[in-house]
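in:
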């Protein structure tokens, strides 16, 4: 949002607060270390675990994707965690303590999920689809619920912190740097995973689904022991001292001196004051679903259609991540200042639709190099879309209830990621029934994504930032006069 529109509301204090310094480029990169950790974890969960469950353990895609998606279905908790970080600081920090506690918990939950996955695979191989096996599916889903709650407790306050420490004129640069680091994390996670997982022998994939499954189990356990520990260390380093030095929350918020009054119900009144909230929420749903349906099936696409090994399909994330890194790092500095945030998001959505069609064509060639180049271009288009949408998202945020607004946008994205993960697996299963050729089954998933992205462009055309800012300003004034006097 335009911070100047809210700055008319200032807390009445005896001594003006000293102005906070601008966030420098090095601090932007340091903040990005947290996003880098999230990128690494996404490769481990959606890349490694999803591929192993579908291909090596022969678990149906809808069940594997559904269990993993449970961490997104608890996304409504993001609203609560965002509001709590607005109203209830921990150890004198509105954001930092929430991020650190959440990071410790989600890295622990990730290791626990792997152990449950092996129990599920063992039960399936020994007794088949019995009550015990379905019970392990339920336990795996529950572990991912805990993973999702911890992720919400950390990622929502972190995004709110980005609003707190930035101004409108440098926010797109901060988004570009921080989300570039997310892509760096995906690339690093893909490389680490591919190196720590079993490699092809004499250029031939090992049949890990049968006699050598124990090799894979030991490698995956080691991967999920070492990497989450690194991720937690990155989160500590990323935020140390940043909030105290750079946060503008107290100087911007008209409610900062009365934090106990920022209840969830009052924050929701500000959140729902503008119809633009609903429009942007719906746009985020369509855009995110259309962007991430491929997450649940891309590794198995490489295995089934292109004959790639586990380590090779994991490395596909590096191509997508590299493209996205280039897209995000250049868009925030070069494209958004010229086209504007809304037009940048529109351009990205259309480019994503085009590259998804290219990925379908790559399947008919069965050439892994073609797929890798297609994913590189898909990542580039995704980076443009992500930067435009996130920059717009941070503008559609009121300073007084930044955590709640970020929670709402995070809710839209998380629900969409959950729907995308399940929908990707379900559409793949449907395509397998409808088509004899695997390339057509996977093509059904990618084609549906392209259609959804075009629909997102139509929704984006109705989003109006100025209308949102005017309505939010009026709502804050109403809340202050009627509820806080």
């Amino acid at each position: 949002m335009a911070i100047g529109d809210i700055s008319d509301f200032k807390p009445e204090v005896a001594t003006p607060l000293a102005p906070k310094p601008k966030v420098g480029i090095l601090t932007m990169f340091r903040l990005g270390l947290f996003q880098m950790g999230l990128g690494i974890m996404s490769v481990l969960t959606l890349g490694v675990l999803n591929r192993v469950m579908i291909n090596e353990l022969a678990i149906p895609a809808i069940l594997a994707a559904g269990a993993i998606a449970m961490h997104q279905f608890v996304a409504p908790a993001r609203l609560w965690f965002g509001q709590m970080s607005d109203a209830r600081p921990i150890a004198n920090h509105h954001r930092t303590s929430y991020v650190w506690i959440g990071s410790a918990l989600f890295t622990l939950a990730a290791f626990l999920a792997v152990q449950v996955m092996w129990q599920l695979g063992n039960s399936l191989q020994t007794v088949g689809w019995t009550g015990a096996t379905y019970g392990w599916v339920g336990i795996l889903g529950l572990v991912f619920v805990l993973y999702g709650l911890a992720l919400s407790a950390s990622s929502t306050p972190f995004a709110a912190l980005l609003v707190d420490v930035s101004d409108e004129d440098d926010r797109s640069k901060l988004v570009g740097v921080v989300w570039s680091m997310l892509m760096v994390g995906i690339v690093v996670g893909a490389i680490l995973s591919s190196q720590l997982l079993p490699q092809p022998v004499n250029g031939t994939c090992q049949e890990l689904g049968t006699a050598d499954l124990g090799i894979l189990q030991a490698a995956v356990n080691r991967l999920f022991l070492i990497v989450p520990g690194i991720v937690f260390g990155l989160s500590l380093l990323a935020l140390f001292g940043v909030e105290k030095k750079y946060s503008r929350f107290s100087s911007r918020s008209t409610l900062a001196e009365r934090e106990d009054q920022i209840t969830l119900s009052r924050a929701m009144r500000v959140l729902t004051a503008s119809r633009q909230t609903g429009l942007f929420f719906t746009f985020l749903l369509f855009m995110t679903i259309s962007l991430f349906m491929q997450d649940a099936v891309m590794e198995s696409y490489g295995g089934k259609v292109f004959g790639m090994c586990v380590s090779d399909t994991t490395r596909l994330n590096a191509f997508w991540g590299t493209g996205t890194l280039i897209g995000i790092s250049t868009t925030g500095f070069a494209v958004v200042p010229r086209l504007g945030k809304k037009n940048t998001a529109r351009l990205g959505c259309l480019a994503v639709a085009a590259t998804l069609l290219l990925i379908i064509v790559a399947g008919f060639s069965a050439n892994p190099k073609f797929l890798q180049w297609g994913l590189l271009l898909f990542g580039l288009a995704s980076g443009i879309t992500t930067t435009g949408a996130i920059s717009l998202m941070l503008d559609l945020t009121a300073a007084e209830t930044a955590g709640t607004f970020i929670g709402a946008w995070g809710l839209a994205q998380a629900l969409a990621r959950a729907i995308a993960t399940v929908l990707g697996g379900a559409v793949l299963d449907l395509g397998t029934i409808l088509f004899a050729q695997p390339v057509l089954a996977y093509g059904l998933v990618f084609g549906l994504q392209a259609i959804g992205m075009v629909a997102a462009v139509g929704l984006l055309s109705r989003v109006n930032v100025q209308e949102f800012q005017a309505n939010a300003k009026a709502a804050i004034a109403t809340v202050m006069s009627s509820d806080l006097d």
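note: The mean pLDDT is 79.
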